[in-house]
Design brief:
By secondary structure, this protein is of the alpha/beta class. The protein has three domains: about 35 residues; about 110 residues, Immunoglobulin-like, CATH 2.60.40; about 220 residues, 3-Layer(aba) Sandwich (Rossmann fold), CATH 3.40.50.1000. Helix content is about 35%, strand content about 25%. Strands 3, 4, 5, 6, 7, 8, 9 and 10 form an eight-stranded mixed sheet that branches. Strands 13-12-11-14-15-16 form a six-stranded parallel sheet, with helices on both faces. A two-stranded antiparallel sheet has the order 1-2. The chain starts with a strand and ends with a helix.
Length: about 375
Amino acid sequence: MEERRGVIDWGAHLARMVEGLERRVDSAIGGIGWRSGRPNPIAAFVYRGFGTPERARVMGRVLEVDHTAPSGAGDPRWRNVFAALGRFESDEVPGARVAIRYGDAVQEVVTDPDGYFTTWIDGSAPDEAGAGWRKVRADLVDPSGLPGESRILVPSASARIGIISDLDDTVIRTGVRRLVRMLASTFLENARTRLPFPGVAAFYQALHAGTTGSAQAPIFYVSSSPWNMHDFLLEFLEIRGIPVGPLLLRDWTMSHETFRPRGHHSHKTEAIELLFSTYPDLPFILIGDSGQHDPEIYREMARRHPGRVPAIYIRDVTANPIRAAQVRELAAEVAALGSKMVLVDDTLGAARHAAEHGWIAPERVAAVQEEVRVAAQ
């Protein structure tokens, strides 16, 4: 293992370990494909996006098709390991030409060296289910392959507030601060065995529903989890009854040098700024945890956008007294900006605060409390 100033470089160590596993998986899968004479088909994958009545932000990737089956609660751990490796071992297709279809609008894009495409497309599409989601489709022009479909969220013009939430150690128990725990969660579990924090489903449902007579509050998930986890995270949200929203994830570079995303702070800041600029009249409640840089990032958002961050909920996931003091200082700075950073031990504390300030219906607190009670049994 590499050491820098006496500290083990776990990122480099993890990269070498995963690369070794990846080579074994590549060899096995490649051998199967060669023997069967059926190479994996190429497909366009479209991620959940967002937009306004006039345009939509569409992002996706062109890859060789992953044959991973949906997860099951009783799946053995070896199957979870191979499914996780399959998500990270993606065979991207750079330079592919893709036709994006959104309503009557069509726009052609070309994938970058990692197989991604991102574009704003002008136009509108019908809200078929009445919940704000519009259909978007991506057809492969060259090379030929399977099309992809997804949804674009267009919030109601009468929405009073939006929600921006982290995922790791905020919604889903991950242990990103502890390498061994994070690896166990990522490679040994699946969307049906991973657990949310108690009360999260009921609380986010309450935030999404809003109060009597208000439009649904759109929920956006901003995380440093890799795009390889997109479908896994969507499945997790749906299984656990947590409102699905657009996911703003990022690319992870896997090489002998690193297996970590670069610029965690800048990624989240840029993603949140994109949402603030897309919806300039919408205030946002920000939800995160104390383990990484969410308090610092959210404090900066409150500073940059006066009056648009009515509350920041930070789940306390660290026992480090130095970090706790830092978060308290940040909360004082946020208060001076006219906002409120609330450090909570559990979801129930956030729900009670939200009900007191009119962001969720008061009767919804009981459902959050019941989830927390059941989880504690």
